[in-house]
Amino acid sequence: MKNILVTGGAGFIGSNFIRMVLTEHPDCLVVNLDKLTYAGNLENLADLVGGGAAGTRGAGRTPVPQVPRVTAHDTPYRFVHGDICDAALVARVIDEHHIDTIVNFAAESHVDRSLTGPKIFIETNVTGTLCLLEAARDRNVDRFLQVSTDEVYGALGPEGQFTEQTLLSPNSPYSASKAAADHLVRAFGHTWGLKYNITRCSNNYGPYQFPEKLIPLMIHNALHDKELPVYGDGMQVRDWLYVYDHCTAIWRVLERAAPGEIYNIGGCNEKANLEVVNIILSRLGKPQSLIRHVKDRPGHDRRYAIDAGKIIRELGWKPSVTFEEGIARTIDWYLAGGKWLANVVSGAYQQYYERMYANR
Ligand code: NAD
Ligand code: DAU
Question: Separation of 338 CA from ligand 1 center, angstroms?
């Protein structure tokens, strides 16, 4: 594996993955293909690949006009601004950079947005993945890794864990689109012998996460003494994994997994949302009175829990960051990165927040 196409590399997990690869595996070339939606932010990588690649575009801003490719000549990194649904562009990028590995992070990733506007979720998460798969098959790419989610399995009651054998039962348009993509990936393997892997990870947190998701939203609101909108009773359970550990798990799969294998990735770290919110408040020295219980998310999955035994046993991966350590690092990062957060929450984010929370 030398020349890796990372799609969605300007987003939260994709940018953390690129950071890990450029830092720890500098013999690889990374080509980042990203559409720069509201969630894509080249500032996430600016310190690593130079100001040229960063510009001032990205996260939450007004739509970006077509920009030329930006290249950081001193780093084995190239950025291509484009859409994974653009078949001609995808083919050209694979050919030009002799891509042997594709890691598909690009997606619409927020469940709440999928409830108000599901169409783009189908376009990017399903049609976009199909487009990448066709290009990978036609060009004999060595490995296609689909970054999927534990949400494809649906919801759990108070007991049990998702294994790789759990039937897919997605409950939201977001998770349905991710499950559809997983099925397509598998079908390309079965029908045309595409060498693929699928990883299904639990909730990530850490630096560069867009503040529409629970942890960064609560940190941002608490920092500004704004109410913290907890959906319903706040007793929904998620398994939290520090983003760096998700990245190392993906790398381990790329290095060691046999084609066609699916791996769950998780932190063994189940927490109710209220517990997470209270930890954030107490670390920031803010009062619990900031918590406001608001109308629940329609169809809200009650509990996710991941059995990550297969990747631990077969590939020797394990998480390296405890929740206590990870949340401390994350809060410190948001405190120190005031400019990043201020840029992200300007403009379109304000309208999003108003739309999502004003009458909740
Ligand atoms: P994100 O929303 O932060 O980033 C998504 C990135 O994809 C952005 O940079 C965006 O510009 C880009 N993108 C969107 N549509 C595109 C298109 N059509 N063409 C090219 N680029 C496009 O998402 P994230 O939280 O970093 O999640 C990354 C992947 O990991 C997703 O596939 C998601 O389903 C999966 N995942 C996320 C989590 C989590 O907790 N965040 C957990 C498990 C799996
Ligand atoms: O499980 C993996 C998934 O985790 C990923 O596939 C998704 O891309 C990612 O967004 C995440 O989905 P969730 O819906 O679990 O994450 P979110 O941060 O939106 O919400 C986490 C929990 O917090 C969920 O139970 C809803 C609740 N919540 C969220 C927000 C934004 C609140 O109570 N209030 C909020 O304002």
Answer: 23
Does ligand 1 come within 6 angstroms of the Cβ of 12?
A: yes
- Which among 164, 311, 166 has a CA at the least distance from the CA of 245? 311
pLDDT interval class at 107 (50, 70, 90) = very high
Based on the residue annotation, tell me whether 83 is a catalytic residue of this protein: no
Cα(348)–Cα(353) distance, rounded to whole angstroms?
9
- Both tokens of residue 273? 């949302």
Strand order in the sheet with 270-272: 203-205, 237-242, 270-272
Report whether residue 128 contacts ligand 1, using a CB cutoff of 6 Å.
Answer: yes
Q: 267 CB under 6 A from ligand 1?
A: no
Kindly give the distance from the C-alpha atom of residue 8 to the centroid of ligand 1, in angstroms, as a whole number.
Answer: 6
Q: What is the percentage of the chain residues whose pLDDT exceeds 90?
A: 89
Confidence of residue 339 (pLDDT cuts 50, 70, 90): confident
34 touches ligand 1 (CB under 6 Å): yes
DSSP string, 176-189: HHHHHHHHHHHHHH
Domains of the chain: 3-206+243-267+303-321 (3.40.50.720)
Q: Please answer whether residues 82 and 91 qualify as being in contact, where contact means their C-beta atoms are separated by less than 8 angstroms.
A: no
What are the residues whose beta carbons fall under 8 Å from the beta carbon of 159, sequence distance 6 or more?
A: none
Marked catalytic residue, from 151, 239, 245, 301: 151
